[in-house]
């Protein structure tokens, strides 16, 4: 994350300035080598789960395809729902994986080259039309694959909880309220989200 983002956040928000001072530079490093298919599959695995649990499920899933570092969409035709279920995926998530694979093969989910040419809003509109893919899932792709700088996943529990902790609120902010507050962070909302995740993680460690 570039220095301009930290300078902006520090200038517009004293709480962010404190978080940056306490936590240090933003360590968010996107993985542009992922395909959109891989990013969506990984995001589906992480839906409503802690990171360690999702990573365990993904590790089991990848073992179903020993010849690949990560399966391709066409590879899913070679495994059964029962095999994927044994990895820890729920039935709704298995259905989502099947649809994502189908839509990738049909071109609805763009290739790595195509997706880089699309705006954030275009990517969100295109991918949320795929059954089982919600806004949060696409936002994770925007952040962790494409490295887009102005993404605020306001529905994310970790971001909302980090906001509650950092800003000393009694309860979790509603997504709409967080989006309104977060306008001051633009065009570097992604870095702000990262610091809120770190704030939530630090509080959890203290407990």
What does this structure look like?
The protein folds into 2 domains: about 5-30 and about 150-205, Endonuclease Iii, domain 2 (Orthogonal Bundle), CATH 1.10.1670.40; about 35-145, Orthogonal Bundle (Endonuclease III, domain 1). Helices cover about 60% and strands about 0% of the residues. It has 12 helices and no strands. It has helices at about 5-10, 15-25, 35-45, 50-65, 80-85, 90-105, 110-115, 120-125, 135-145, 155-165, 175-180, 190-205. The longest helix is centred in the C-terminal third of the chain and has 18 residues, at about 190-205.
What's this model, at a glance?
This protein has twelve helices and no strands. With 207 residues, the chain is mainly α.
Instruction: Just name the CATH architecture of the largest domain.
Output: Orthogonal Bundle
Straight-line distance between termini: 29 Å
Portion of residues within helices: 55-70%
- What would you call the structural class? mainly alpha
CATH topology of the largest domain: Endonuclease III, domain 1
What overall form do the CA principal axes indicate? Answer: globular
> What oligomeric state is this?
single chain
CATH homologous superfamily of the largest domain?
Answer: Hypothetical protein, domain 2
What is the beta-strand fraction? under 5%
Structural domains: how many: 2
What does the average pLDDT come to? Answer: 93
Question: SSE order, as H and E?
Answer: HHHHHHHHHHHH
